[in-house]
Amino acid sequence: MNHDIAFIGGGNMARSLIGGLVARGHAPAAIRVAEPVAALRAALQADFGVTACEHGAQAVAGAGTWVLAVKPQVMRAVCEELAPLAQAQRTLVVSIAAGITTAQIDRWLGCGLPVVRAMPNTPALLGAGVTGLYAGPAVDAAGRDFAQALLSAAGTTVWIDSEAQMDAVTAVSGSGPAYVFLLAEAMVDAAQREGLPPEAARALVLQTVLGAARMLTESDADASELRRRVTSPGGTTQAAIETFEAGGLRALVAAAIHAARVRGAELSAAND
Ligand SMILES: NC(=O)C1=CN([C@@H]2O[C@H](COP(=O)(O)OP(=O)(O)OC[C@H]3O[C@@H](n4cnc5c(N)ncnc54)[C@H](O)[C@@H]3O)[C@@H](O)[C@H]2O)C=CC1
Ligand SMILES: O=C(O)[C@@H]1CCC=N1
């Protein structure tokens, strides 16, 4: 199988994935990116040594795998423009777009192609991402293996059997880093309101998030048990947790993730 990879779209998420691939030894010469914004092309070339082109047709020529990394709103037009080349090359297609289905990609590219739908997240830049993967019906074992290897450069991977669940994956882990960043922002603001200097507030919050994330992933205890161990009866944590619960934090998180999942389905319908 031809291991050259063409990225269509060289924005935030493509940059994270390309950074992960190059850091893990994928030859920059075997990666081409199509990106209309000149400044982004220059940065990708300078930072990773990959070839950046203005037009999709230049990037995909001879590439065995295409990674579609444009916004859902432009995906149909991008695919329809590349359809003749896709049919000629019979390429493996990996789409990372929120909402857009493998059937839509396949139809727009002219039908019958192996399409993998992937939902990575931005910690991919550090190799600390997680990607949900769904293989469309035309993907064979070699295609699955290559897609998994490609996304493994960004972190861990989880195969999903039902494509309908990919919108939930998007809502949980695709968007999820932003939820953690929002909590961090709110904690830094609150720390300053309680009188801490900005730099101290930032240092305390960032290391707390990192330390808590490491405990979640490195200890045997689950989140609720780890929380219990911090919460002395009648102590400070209990006062905070009771405030979160009284304010409906769990219901709010559920509603937020539901809204993200619904938006994924809307993106599919609105851009068909
Ligand atoms: N940002 C994130 O955390 C994640 C994003 N995604 C998905 O990744 C895709 C890209 O998202 P971002 O990187 O955040 O957006 P972005 O806007 O940073 O990147 C998209 C890039 O595509 C380029 N582009 C537009 N038209 C093009 C064309 N015809 N040919 C080639 N490139 C073209 C744009 O100039 C832009 O740089 C979206 O579909 C999104 O749903 C998936 C997982 C996480
Ligand atoms: O917000 C979005 O639509 C994209 C998909 C997951 C993360 N960012």
TrEMBL record:
Purpose: Catalyzes the reduction of 1-pyrroline-5-carboxylate (PCA) to L-proline.
One GO-annotated biological process of the protein: L-proline biosynthetic process
Family, per entry: Belongs to the pyrroline-5-carboxylate reductase family.
Keyword hit for Amino-acid biosynthesis: yes
Domain Pyrroline-5-carboxylate reductase dimerisation per the UniProt entry, residue ranges: 163-267
Protein name, as recorded: Pyrroline-5-carboxylate reductase
InterPro entries in the record: 6-PGluconate_DH-like_C_sf, NAD(P)-bd_dom_sf, P5C_Rdtase_cat_N, P5CR-like_CS, P5CR_dimer, Pyrroline-COOH_reductase
Domain of life: Bacteria
Pathway recorded for this protein: Amino-acid biosynthesis; L-proline biosynthesis; L-proline from L-glutamate 5-semialdehyde: step 1/1
Domain Pyrroline-5-carboxylate reductase catalytic N-terminal residue range list: 5-99
Gene3D superfamilies hit by this protein: NAD(P)-binding Rossmann-like Domain, ProC C-terminal domain-like
Species in which this protein is naturally found: Thermomonas haemolytica
Location of this chain's protein in the cell: Cytoplasm
GO molecular function: pyrroline-5-carboxylate reductase activity
GO CC annotation terms, alphabetical: cytoplasm
Gene symbol of the encoding locus: proC
Lineage, broadest ranks: Bacteria, Pseudomonadati, Pseudomonadota, Gammaproteobacteria, Lysobacterales
EC id: 1.5.1.2
Residues the entry annotates as binding NADP(+): I8, G9, G10, G11, N12, M13, A69, V70, K71, P72
Keywords, alphabetical: Amino-acid biosynthesis, Cytoplasm, NADP, Oxidoreductase, Proline biosynthesis
Catalysed transformations (reactions): L-proline + NADP(+) = (S)-1-pyrroline-5-carboxylate + NADPH + 2 H(+); L-proline + NAD(+) = (S)-1-pyrroline-5-carboxylate + NADH + 2 H(+)
Top EC class for this record: oxidoreductase
